[in-house]
Amino acid sequence: MKVTIRQIAKQLGVHHTTVSRALRNSPRISENMRQRIKSLAIKLGYRPNLVASGLSTRKTFNVGLIVADISTTFFSQVARGVEDTMRRAGYNVFICNTDDKIEDEKFHWDALISRGVDGIIISPANLKPRYLQKLLGAGVPIVFIDRCLPSLRASYVITDHFSGGYQMTKYLLSLGHRRIAYVRGEVEMGRFYGYEHALKEYGIPVDNSLTPVCDFTIEGGKKAAKKLVRMEHPPTAIFCVNDPVALGAMKAIREHGFRIPEDISLAGFDNADFAEFLQPPLTTVHQSKYELGEEAARILLQEMNGKLREPRKVELKPVLVIRDSCRHIGDSRVNSALPECLLLATTIIA
Amino acid sequence: MKVTIRQIAKQLGVHHTTVSRALRNSPRISENMRQRIKSLAIKLGYRPNLVASGLSTRKTFNVGLIVADISTTFFSQVARGVEDTMRRAGYNVFICNTDDKIEDEKFHWDALISRGVDGIIISPANLKPRYLQKLLGAGVPIVFIDRCLPSLRASYVITDHFSGGYQMTKYLLSLGHRRIAYVRGEVEMGRFYGYEHALKEYGIPVDNSLTPVCDFTIEGGKKAAKKLVRMEHPPTAIFCVNDPVALGAMKAIREHGFRIPEDISLAGFDNADFAEFLQPPLTTVHQSKYELGEEAARILLQEMNGKLREPRKVELKPVLVIRDSCRHIGDSRVNSALPECLLLATTIIA
DNA sequence: CTCTATTGTGCACCCGTGTGCACAACATAA
DNA sequence: TTATGTTGTGCACACGGGTGCACAATAGAG
After folding, report:
1. Which CA distances in Å does B116 have to A55, A91, A306, B55, B104?
2. How many other CB atoms are there within 10 angstroms of residue A92's CB atom?
3. Which pLDDT score is estimated for A137?
4. What percentage of chain B exceeds 70 in pLDDT?
5. How many domains does chain A have?
6. For chain B, how long is the longest CA-to-CA vector?
7. Is the dihedral of CA A10, A13, A17, A22 positive or negative?
8. Which of A334, B216, B238, B330 holds its CA 20 to 30 A away from the CA of A82?
9. What are the HTH lacI-type domain coordinates in residue numbering (chains A, B) (predicted)?
10. How far apart are CA A179 and CA A177, in angstroms?
11. B204 and B283 together in one domain
């Protein structure tokens, strides 16, 4: 049988509320009594029942983390950042996967609300303003992560996707590529706009046939890239929305008999742990996944403590990571040595 | 303000217990009243407060998942399997990281108990019988995952680590290797015993200098492998406790000027998603991570429903995956074509 | 018509903790 | 002595929902 404050109270011949107050360090309890209560609590191995206290105080010390897929390199690292930070503040974290399906997201949302979570960190599957507005109106502190609508009056922590997409595209352009494909994610738009913007600077229109949409998986990348390499005039470079997609693209490219980077240059996004060990080592855009989660959790803690009058909007700057999977066009060199755009990248970061 | 059953009751002029019963489909409520109550509940957007019902029924519909590190490829996929299965049954999952530190594990354990979880799936940092026994005595249904003490009267789901270690070592031996290093994990012993056993069959004693211990990270693998390649007589093959460690080893091997597999053969364990895309594609042992989590969750559900009289002990069979990172010694071939031990593996699986 | 099932609903109280308020015990000042 | 704080403790009740039991309403049997 679990120990309750009433049992402690009984043994000491006091009322259970006295025990409750003593354990919560209420100033109204005498120092002497407080000590007696605390030491007995320890002796009996008392563990407060957070379900009960959650009911009466409406604070559960639980938060929810809603992401597309915890098994990805990206979100699993984000989750770790969230959990570490939350734990230090005494919170537990519920993990919820949506696969970017709106119904699943709703399901999890309701489940979290029913459980009385104190806050939610969410990477929404649905970016419609009305929908997000509704989430914000639910009365639960929210922090958006990785995805958001900047115009909304809400806290968020994201990577500057636009900058990342822009830097990479600019880099590929500087290598002489002009037919650059971008394998898009269904929800992700920022990187795409960066890509678009860089092309525009070179006077290149976006060719829809070069921007297939895929989910964020290896299989999805393979499928999308397959279409690209089978084109009459395949792109000379393929930029993928993330590293796993690049992995799939890598397979498709090779199965079609093309070499990387000799025939087709390949780039990813995320700088997953494995990226530098691929053959060739993958050129990609680094984003700080753990820090993303850490920062989101910090902000959520502040929101929950009411220490935040205005929403906090944080954009972490991504960094171009040049390895060997992209080559200079019309040149035997595999990759160019520190092109102008890297300098640009550095200035953006600073 | 959140809708409660008392509010619904008031609007209908009935007692709140009638509402409670109607929503829980008690047979004592008339069909007519049940319909009226349910439709009003839907209309008002009633969401049951699981904190409150958890207090009175002692069932929270929450479970805990305690692992070393959710950000690893292995545990993140396990977690996904757990979450998917639990969600279908109406449960939410708390995620807890221990980094294999016993104090952190205890901390999380207490946190979960305080929150009244209905069950716990745990990959314990500490495999001491007395400790595990104590966990089992806490009165909470438990399923061990990935690690356990088979002698204990407890449910578990693991990969047959021994078989995996044995198969891989046998394979390396069949390629002609005799100086085979094994980069061990701190906690993991099964794979090591398999390695030991295979060596014994060839009359080779275990050389402690060839079996450095490391954590399960890339950095750890790099550090451990560095020692190995710097030896006067380096091993001809390095078998790593998992794929990330192999990644680190790969780096160390190359930084020392050795080629893979020409100078040193390299093998991993897990068959992480990225393994086939490495250069050379990594020979490894496949284990089903998602299924591991799925099965553990299924068993926990049965335990929580009291449908399990005896503990369920499940061992999933690993499969040797031969790629190009191991070569035949004294032979120009990179890898041997289907050696006897693969046949052996197949029989073990069946 | 009374007696007895059957069915549906309400009452009281529980789950474990928290909190406003009353009040007892004691000390100090008038 | 009485009036007036302090300080510490207990009481009642709340949080939202669940459950054993009593009992009212209705129906059917004798």
Report:
1. 13, 14, 27, 9, 19
2. 24
3. 92
4. 94
5. 3
6. 89
7. negative
8. B216
9. 3-57
10. 6
11. yes
